[in-house]
Write a structure and sequence with these properties.
Blueprint (H helix, E strand, L loop, with lengths): L1 H10 L9 H9 L3 H4 L1 H7 L11 H4 L4 H13 L7
């Protein structure tokens, strides 16, 4: 269970480019962790001159839409244990 709770924190300690292109794309398009951590930092340290990299945290808000939908489905189907 520890991999699910601490995995994201441990993953974020290292630059995402060391994990390879497939992992970087996964954390850009599926779970937008790279949009709020990797791309803005690359712009801040001058590795890229594209100013859109500084705005990628705003794009990650699109991820909230499916999260809210899944949350509502989960709350709707929640059954308490009764204790």
């Amino acid at each position: 269970m520890n991999i699910f709770t601490d995995g994201g924190r441990e993953y974020g300690k290292y630059p995402m480019s060391i994990y390879g292109d497939a992992v970087l794309k996964f954390f850009t398009y599926v779970i937008p962790l790279a949009c709020v951590q990797y791309y803005p930092f690359m712009y801040l340290i001058g590795r890229t001159k594209n100013p859109l990299y500084a705005l990628t945290p705003l794009v990650s808000f699109i991820f909230l839409i499916p999260c809210i939908i899944f949350w509502k489905i989960g709350v709707k189907h929640y059954k308490s244990t009764g204790s």
